[in-house]
Amino acid sequence: MERTYDDRMFIDTFEHEYTWLNGFMRNVGRYPKNPAVLDPETGSKLTYSDLNREANRLANALKTDGVGKNDLVMTAIRNCPAFAVTYIAPRKLGAILQPANYNLAAGELALLIDHNEPKVLIYSANTADTVVRALELCSHRPVRAVLCDNLENKEIPAGHVSYEDYTAEESDEEPGMEERPHIYDEVLRLCTSGTTALPKSVPVNDINEVLSAHDIIMQYPMNMTDRTLNMTPYFHRGACHCGGPCPSFYVGASIVTMRVFDAKKTLKWVEEYGITFLTGAPSSLEMLSRQQTKKPRNLKSLKGIITMGAPFDRAACETYLDTLTPNIYNGYGTTETLWNCFLRPYDLPEGAGSTGGSCIDDEVRIIRAYPDKKGEPDELIPKDGETQGEVIIRSPAKGTYSYYKNKELEQEKFYKGWMYTGDTGTWNERSHVTICGRKDDMMIVSGENIYPTQIEEALNSNPKVRESIVTGVPDKDKYRGEVIAAYVVREDESLTIAELIAYCSAHPMLSEYKIPRYYAFIDEVPKTATGKKLHYKIRQQAISDMESGVLRRKD
Predict the structure, then answer these.
(1) pTM for the predicted model, two decimal places
(2) Which H, E and C letters describe 331-361, residue by residue?
(3) How far is residue 25's CA from residue 48's CA, in Å, rounded to a whole number?
(4) Which of 163, 311, 391, 508 is a plausible cystine mate for 107, CB 3.0–4.6 Å?
(5) In b/e form, how buried is each residue of 342-373, taking b as 16+ CB within 10 angstroms?
């Protein structure tokens, strides 16, 4: 198509130079002595210049191992400086980073390794036992397994190498990229839950990274003077992109790392390090509020707290506004699309419970939901705050509308430029969305999406179990949001709940957060006439069974 001007230089520059890595490198030049990473647990600091040199050393080590264009580097790393380095280094080679959930069970991690075939696997010492077992179970063999962040002084497993030894002899000069980058190159592959033990792999391209950073920088707003701390793991998109390495390093801000969330430490570090933004789940805010009430800290540096994963009710919101900060934000979205609705401080506390309105570059709609087909994107339900439909998202800036090696799921989830979330909700005259539930049977435990199928398969593999059905129930401690309740039909009447607990705790396909917290024996699983399990019915029953004591608690 002929244009009214010569567009060749624009296209060439935009498509090849408008990358996240170039944004980071601009800040290396602008703010070389400014802190990029602060690690209170070790007292260490990486300036932008330090971080770039360390990323170069790792990139050169990866290059020595043959990592290049479109090769995959998988990590299982807690929130620490090593995560920041691995976030940058693969991009310098045109490679792809896949940050895996370090809480996965060994069997789950093995499936992820076989599905994605990483050339190099880098993991923090706390996951060493799981990684070793996973590598025994999987078929694919990475060229290298590298142990980092070894605060526990853990012995290096046979055949693996320490991060220090891996990078010790490497140059801190730029490694040089053999192929010119493009904004549509995949640079990041995130994991999200699925109906099976294999997490879905979500490709994120370079322009997604840039525009995701822009979204967060604009929403907060964020600048190079800010310091952020994430209370949830960086392997989540919500942590990585909402105040984590993606926007922080793109704008020139600092990240403060915390390996395991601790409310007391968080408040202490806000005071000592002048943290301006905290990001976490609503349960994190609950713990912060309790601790701040118990032992108040000076939180005057805080510009805001951002929460995701679930709404909070008005009473809780008012408490947080009073005890923590008047600037609380609540984002709603998916791994595939980042956040797409945003509840801002001026919406609170009146808007508590909803997810707010669409983000600036996104569109969120609620359409008619059908049991056997997709609703069309233009089949809008009334904006009356009562009628329920399915939530769909249009977010071309922050997602690729794809899954890695999963065409069937792509066809199910993506349609006519929209993502069909499976969430049900209502919206009002301001187009503010309130989430009501799920079209499917997904549960949300500690911010992780979990489907019952995998847990039921694990339970059913016990020879003393004939059949099972699981559901989510409210967490009485309010830390996890939901916990899992398992109903079991016995094949062998000698089976006890204690045996079930031990069996699930040792199962190689069940991460710790997927292990049921409540158990009960039943005579039969409720089903439809065609044999489909009625999860909604068992969910209703579980609430009363908790109150009456029929469900026995694990801990």
Answers:
(1) 0.86
(2) EEEECCCEEEEEECHHHCCCCECECEEECCC
(3) 9
(4) 508
(5) bbeeebbbebbbbbbbbbeebbbbbbebeeee
209-221 pLDDT, tens digit per residue, is 999 999 999 999 9
Res 479: pLDDT: 64
Q: Which of 207, 193, 284 is nearest to 246 (CA)?
A: 207
Quick one: tokens of 130?
């799981």
Supply the mean pLDDT for the chain: 93
**Tens-digit pLDDT profile for residues 253-289:** 999 999 999 999 999 999 999 999 999 988 889 899 9
Among 38-47, 300-309, 540-549, whose mean pLDDT is lowest?
540-549
Tokens encoding 475: 């967490």
Q: Name the β-bridge partners of 333.
A: 339
Half-sphere exposure of 117 (CA within 13 A, CB side): 6
Rounded CA-CA distance 401/508 in Å is 31
In this structure, the dihedral spanned by the alpha carbons of residues 503, 507, 511 and 516, taken in order and rounded to 10 degrees, is -30
- Residue at token pair 């489909």: 532
DSSP 8-state symbol, 381:
P
Would you state the structure tokens that stand for residue 273, as one six-digit string? 């390090």
DSSP 215: H
